[in-house]
Here is the input.
Amino acid sequence: MATFQVPSRLQFEEILSWLKREQEEDYDGFYCKKDMLVEAFYDSQMHCVLSEGKAVGFDIYSLLSTGASIDIFEIHPLHRRKRLGTQLARATIEHLFELGVAQVAVNCTPASSATFWRALGFTERANVPHMVGEAVRLIMSRQSYSFNATVTCRGGNPAPSGAR
Here is the structure.
């Protein structure tokens, strides 16, 4: 069973470790955003998903005057296709709406990730054109989100009980 929470220092170090390995092996990933990750960790604007006690995914978010933005979202490659991303995204969205934000935005980079976010109910903002190959900006309003029955996860953030 997966657990969702604000990461501990040890869990944050686990995340940085696999991101660094990912960059060294594939020249890819979010280790290049280490400063942003560190800032989100210290500001408690980061969630992680644990599987068997290990951090296997995370997201960071920003609170903005117009709502919130999920800035980085990643599940470790060995733990993808297990619905952990869907569960983490829903837990984070619900947490942000419970904080009182009116909408949550996400920039889909690569653009192919838009399919994942659309399946959760995000839509493109009207009249915001984007060029082929650039990030697709999607939003979800509090009114359009369908809250599931929730359970509280560690750190007081909600986690969906019926998430796929």
User: Anything to note?
Assistant: Helices lie at 9-26, 34-42, 84-98, 114-119.
